[in-house]
């Protein structure tokens, strides 16, 4: 299993810039199983049904399956080197927030500048939330890149405050477009970032799984109406391995907005 040595300068760099690159972070065997699961998640319609359950929270009950129930996805959410690194960045106690999984087709559109810090209304950055973006096939010109705006995680702004700019190049941005398969990018969730579109021709699908984690000490707004079900399933599956008692605890969340 690969390990990542993170010295003090890299930790300081994350605090200052709001992101940390982990090339080739995930074991190849795990990446292979994740790709199979992502294909199943997308091709079976389970992803569409999970989205529908979020769009219409009045639907009774959770969708038929959630990402964390997939074996490799559950392993990824609690991958020991990842949790160890999150502990360094956030402190001993943090909670799992959500997991998303997708396979975007070649040539798919980009996504406008935004951040993903869960707070309503946005009023401070006292507690850290981190998104782990796992690029199963890596990042290169054939899938498009990820652009980040270093230091913007210290701004207190709405998620879509820069959405009017689309995915245009911004002064001071850093473009991340050269990462090998199995790489992970850790973002402070308040960091503004954008997904650049892949090439219209000659590209390849973009496999990405993103997980989110919040520092304990506040109550985080959930993003899925069936969030309790996700936490229940994670506990039933023993994904905390008995070492992370707060990782799937419900008391770190507010109620889902009506």
Q: Estimate nothing, just give the exact number of structural domains.
A: 1
**SSE pattern:** HEHHHHEEEEEEEEH
Q: Mean pLDDT, nearest integer? A: 93
Shape: globular
The radius of gyration is 17 Å
Helix content: 10-25%
Strand fraction equals 15-25%
Please identify the structural class as seen in this structure: alpha+beta
Write a structural description.
The chain has helices at 8-17, 28-43, 46-55, 71-77, 80-90, 227-236; strands spanning 19-22, 94-104, 111-114, 129-135, 146-148, 174-176, 183-188, 193-195, 206-215. With 258 residues, it is α+β, with helices and mostly antiparallel strands. The protein has one domain (20-252): Jelly Rolls, CATH 2.60.120.620. A five-stranded antiparallel β-sheet has the order 1-7-4-9-2. The chain is globular.
Briefly, what is this?
The chain has 258 residues and is of the alpha+beta class. Helices cover 25% and strands 20% of the residues.
Provide tags for this entry.
258 residues, alpha+beta, Jelly Rolls, five-stranded antiparallel sheet, four-stranded antiparallel sheet, 25% helix
Topology:
Blueprint: H1 8-17, E1 19-22, H2 28-43, H3 46-55, H4 71-77, H5 80-90, E2 94-104, E3 111-114, E4 129-135, E5 146-148, E6 174-176, E7 183-188, E8 193-195, E9 206-215, H6 227-236
Antiparallel strand pairs: 1-7, 2-9, 3-8, 4-7, 4-9, 5-6, 5-8
Helix pairs in contact: 2-4
